[in-house]
Structures are given as structure tokens and as C-alpha cells.
Design a protein that fits this description.
Elements lengths: L7 E6 L2 H9 L4 E4 L12 H11 L5 E4 L7 H13 L4 E5 L7 H10 L4 E7 L8 H8 L3 E5 L8 H4 L2 H13 L3 E4 L5 H8 L5 E4 L15 H14 L2
Parallel strand pairs: 1-2, 1-8, 2-3, 3-4, 4-5, 5-6, 6-7, 7-8
Helix pairs in contact: 1-2, 4-5, 8-9
Length: 232
């Protein structure tokens, strides 16, 4: 039997303590995010520095910049702040409909040296062809998430063929490809089968699957084990 490529695990954390929980339980990327501040709520610079310090280079750290519009100056400033705090990857939400090409093409050169990940939202009908534009502009990766966190998970908003096309086009463009969006345990095997680089989790790692609750190390280990089984 052919084994699937290993799909890595991104765990969203809101504090240095949670980062240590996630690290010890087997997360591959520690993602700094404050769920009480929106879909891609950012942690404070102080908290991000603490998270980076607690990880101490053992895993990559990603960070969000908040639910900001695609405007070059505020985005550039937010990206630089995150990078200066030690983030290895910086995630930016593409909330607008259509193709906002100007900031997409301009931002990577404005923050040269920072690895950018564009976050698209399945419940906002993003265009599949955006992956090629992102790669051409110098972006590092693309993530598909959900904007509305109380309206179901990623697989409730789109079908498997569309998700497969999203992963395929992102990989063909040379981008790091991640899938997230209120993922549950039952989502792991079918999504891992599509071959993304990462699956991202927050709510499933928390007590009672509540994304605003504290990370539960036992839940992180359970998701890690499920992900390993799905690709073994």
C-alpha cells in the first residue's frame, strides 16, 4: 500500500504556556493567534515575543496580523512588527471578494525577507486561480480557512473536488499549502488524503472544542495521533 505524504500539524496558541503544551504534544508549527480578537486576531507583540522565546527555535512560529484590510501601509507595518518579534511566517487574511492584485503583488517586496502566507476563506468563495498570482508575487504559502467560526467547518462550506483543486493548484505553484477552519477529528483523514502540507487546528485542541477555551494537552496529543494514523 502506498503511504500518503506526512501532513504536518499547525496548532494555534494564545500564550507561551499554550505554546509549550502544543510543542510537547507534537505540533509541527506553533501559530500565535488570539481567537477573541476575530478570525485572525493577533496576539500582542509582548505575547508573541514570549511565544517565540518559549519555542526557542524548536519549531517554526507563525503569527497573524489581525483582521486587516488589504492596504499596503498598515499591512506592511503589521508584518514588520510580527517579524521583528521573531515570527518565521506571517499570515494575512484576504477577506475581500475578487482579486485585489495590487497589494498582493506589492506586499512581498515591501516586506522583503518575510515569508508571507495568504489566508483565503472558503465561506467567501475565493478564486482558485489566486494561487498562481500569489506565487508570482513572491508569497510563501496559502491557507484555506473559514471566516465564520460558528457556521460549520471547512468541509461544510465546500466539496472535496474543490478542496483537491485548491491543494493541487497551490502545490503546482510552489506554495506551502495549508487547510484549516474549525476542523474536527473526522475531517483529518479525508483532508490529509488531499496532500496539503499542513492541517491547522484551534477549537479541536481546546476543552469542549471551544476555541476561546484553554488548549488541552490531551486534545493536542489526540489530534496529533489521528493525523499520524491518517498518513501511516
Amino acid at each position: 500500500m502506498n503511504r500518503l505524504p506526512r501532513v504536518r500539524m499547525l496548532a494555534s496558541v494564545r500564550s507561551a504556556e499554550e505554546a509549550v503544551f502544543a510543542l510537547q504534544a507534537g505540533a509541527d508549527v506553533i501559530d500565535a493567534k488570539e481567537p477573541s480578537r476575530g478570525t485572525l486576531g493577533s496576539v500582542s507583540p509582548e505575547t508573541l515575543r514570549e511565544i517565540v522565546g518559549s519555542v526557542a527555535g524548536r519549531r517554526p512560529v507563525s503569527a497573524t496580523v489581525g483582521d486587516l484590510p488589504l492596504q499596503l501601509d498598515p499591512l506592511s507595518q503589521a508584518v514588520r512588527r510580527a517579524a521583528d518579534c521573531g515570527a518565521d511566517l506571517v499570515k494575512i487574511g484576504v477577506f475581500e471578494q475578487g482579486l485585489p492584485l495590487q497589494p498582493i503583488f506589492t506586499l512581498p517586496s515591501a516586506v522583503a525577507g518575510v515569508r508571507l502566507v495568504a489566508v483565503l476563506f472558503a465561506d467567501r468563495a475565493p478564486p482558485l486561480q489566486l494561487a498562481a498570482h500569489l506565487a508570482q508575487a513572491g508569497w510563501h504559502g496559502v491557507m484555506l480557512d473559514t471566516d465564520r467560526k460558528n457556521g460549520g467547518g471547512l468541509r461544510d462550506w465546500t466539496d472535496e473536488s474543490w478542496l483537491a483543486a485548491f491543494v493541487r493548484q497551490g502545490r503546482a505553484a510552489g506554495l506551502l499549502v495549508s487547510l484549516a477552519g474549525s476542523l474536527r477529528e473526522e475531517d483529518i483523514r479525508p483532508l490529509a488524503a488531499l496532500g496539503p502540507d499542513y492541517l491547522g487546528f484551534r477549537g479541536a485542541l481546546c476543552a469542549d472544542a471551544q476555541r476561546d477555551a484553554c488548549l488541552d494537552p490531551a486534545r493536542v496529543r489526540a489530534i496529533r495521533a489521528q493525523l499520524d494514523r491518517a498518513t501511516s
